[in-house]
Write a structure and sequence with these properties.
By secondary structure, this protein is an alpha+beta fold. It is 41% helix and 23% strand. This is SPOR domain-containing protein.
């Protein structure tokens, strides 16, 4: 009986000692929540006012701000010089032509490309003189036109023919001349022979090609050194 009681007391004593070792030293271990050398965590409400940040900002000298803005000023000044440099190059819109064919126009475009900042091709229709025509007034019928032709032959006038179709049908043609002076001479010869000869200009509509362009620098633009065609000219034109 005594041994049983002693055994129970020893067990109770061991339990009490174990409880004291585990629970009685919480305060000692509570301060070791982190490993040695690691900063402790604090609540935001426990932090002091950010006086150091304000002091650091106030401590920045005014010259630092000025020096920081200096590169921006320098950049602005550098940008402002660009228009002045560009304005030193003068430009004006101009037109070159007329070119006889589209192939001539293409060759000119390729030759002038490096010296031109913009260009465009255009086609115009123009009325061109083909020559001067000497003829008799149109007759009312083909038979009447043939009768006039026989009368010319009877007066020893050669080089004529009767137009059989088209707008000038039943007209006796007496020649087409490039030189108006020669045409007048032929007309006067027929009139002197007693016929009512007339002289009229013959025209046709033909295309011509132009090249509108804006040189990179008009003051030093020498297009003659690249286009060797004396028939090509230039004049100022509206910009596009």
């Amino acid at each position: 009986m005594f041994l049983r009681l002693l055994f129970v007391l020893l067990i109770a004593f061991n339990i009490a000692v174990g409880a004291w070792l585990l629970l009685g030293q919480n305060d000692t271990h509570g301060y070791l929540a982190t490993d040695p050398g690691v900063p402790k965590l604090h609540l935001l409400s426990e932090l002091p006012p950010p006086t150091t940040t304000v002091a650091h900002t106030a401590a920045i000298p005014p010259t630092a701000t000025s020096s920081a803005s200096t590169p921006a000023s320098a950049t602005t000044a550098g940008t402002a010089l660009t228009p002045a440099t560009t304005s030193a190059l003068s430009y004006a819109c101009m037109a070159l032509g007329p070119f006889a064919t589209q192939e001539d126009l293409r060759i000119a475009r390729n030759a002038l490309g490096p010296q031109v900042q913009r260009m465009r091709a255009r086609q115009e229709q123009i009325t061109q003189t083909r020559g001067w025509w000497v003829h008799l007034p149109p007759s009312s019928s083909h038979a009447a036109a043939l009768a006039q032709a026989r009368q010319l032959g009877a007066r020893n006038i050669q080089d004529y023919f009767v137009v059989g179709s088209g707008d000038d049908q039943n007209t006796v043609s007496l020649g087409l001349f490039k030189d108006p002076a020669n045409a007048r001479k032929r007309r006067d010869q027929i009139v002197a022979a007693g016929f009512q000869a007339q002289m009229s200009e013959r025209t046709e509509t033909v295309p011509e090609y132009w090249l509108d362009l804006i040189p990179v620098d008009s003051e030093h633009f020498d297009w003659r050194s690249r286009i060797h065609d004396s028939s090509i000219g230039s004049h100022s034109a509206g910009c596009f």
